[in-house]
């Protein structure tokens, strides 16, 4: 019997203000490309990427959401079934960092408390314009009880680590809730899909 294409299928959301580099991070990770002239995301887009974490093969369905207020109603529906959420701000923009609070409030409103979260300070490639100190990032991350990381989609710094970190956090949650997940769901609205040998690799996570 042949091995499955992957063991788990996880749905990730990338959220944050418009212009913080969400699409740039996604395309750097999935396609290893970068452009300084991305078209603003309209609604939601997504990419697929497979990776291995400690011998576990995971397929990621990564959703890139629009940050503008007028798309909030549209993108809110995509929180359903998410296993992990990446909150992104621009380290060169104090207002986008201040709005992190609003994004975490939106997560709390739309997701169960056990959804994995990661706070990311992007565009960390211009020291002379950096407006948010690393210590401030860590302080806010500690307040919300989440991990944090600084990235640069432009220079390809910590982008792979960002996705590996959130995936590892989801796997830890899966391990802590193995009894519930074996029953087909966590009981908190987050479903973890395991693909066994012989099963179709097209099975969805939500």
From TrEMBL:
<dbReference type="GO" id="GO:0005525">
    <property type="term" value="F:GTP binding"/>
</dbReference>
<keyword id="KW-0342">GTP-binding</keyword>
<dbReference type="InterPro" id="IPR001806">
    <property type="entry name" value="Small_GTPase"/>
</dbReference>
<dbReference type="GO" id="GO:0012505">
    <property type="term" value="C:endomembrane system"/>
</dbReference>
<feature type="region of interest" description="Disordered">
    <location>
        <begin position="177"/>
        <end position="206"/>
    </location>
</feature>
<dbReference type="GO" id="GO:0003924">
    <property type="term" value="F:GTPase activity"/>
</dbReference>
<keyword id="KW-0472">Membrane</keyword>
<dbReference type="InterPro" id="IPR050227">
    <property type="entry name" value="Rab"/>
</dbReference>
<keyword id="KW-0547">Nucleotide-binding</keyword>
<protein>
    <recommendedName>
        <fullName>Ras-related protein Rab-35</fullName>
    </recommendedName>
</protein>
<dbReference type="InterPro" id="IPR005225">
    <property type="entry name" value="Small_GTP-bd"/>
</dbReference>
<dbReference type="Pfam" id="PF00071">
    <property type="entry name" value="Ras"/>
</dbReference>
<dbReference type="InterPro" id="IPR027417">
    <property type="entry name" value="P-loop_NTPase"/>
</dbReference>
């Amino acid at each position: 019997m042949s091995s499955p294409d992957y063991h788990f299928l996880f749905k990730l959301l990338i959220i944050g203000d418009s212009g913080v580099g969400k699409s740039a991070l996604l395309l750097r990770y999935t396609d290893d490309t970068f452009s300084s002239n991305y078209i603003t995301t309209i609604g939601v887009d997504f990419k697929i990427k497979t990776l291995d974490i400690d011998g576990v093969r995971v397929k990621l369905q990564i959703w890139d959401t629009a940050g503008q207020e007028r798309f909030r109603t549209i993108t809110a529906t995509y929180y359903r079934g998410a296993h992990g959420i990446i909150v992104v701000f621009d380290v060169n923009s104090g207002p986008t960092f201040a709005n992190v609070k609003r994004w975490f409030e939106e997560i709390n409103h739309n997701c169960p408390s056990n959804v994995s979260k990661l706070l990311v300070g992007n565009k960390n490639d211009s020291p002379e314009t950096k407006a948010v100190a690393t210590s401030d990032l860590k302080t806010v991350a500690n307040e919300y009880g989440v991990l944090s990381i600084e990235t640069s989609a432009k220079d390809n710094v910590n982008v792979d680590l960002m996705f590996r970190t959130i995936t590892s956090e989801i796997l830890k949650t899966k391990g802590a809730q193995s009894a519930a997940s074996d029953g087909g769901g966590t009981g908190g609205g987050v479903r973890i899909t395991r693909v066994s040998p012989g099963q179709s690799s097209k099975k969805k996570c939500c």
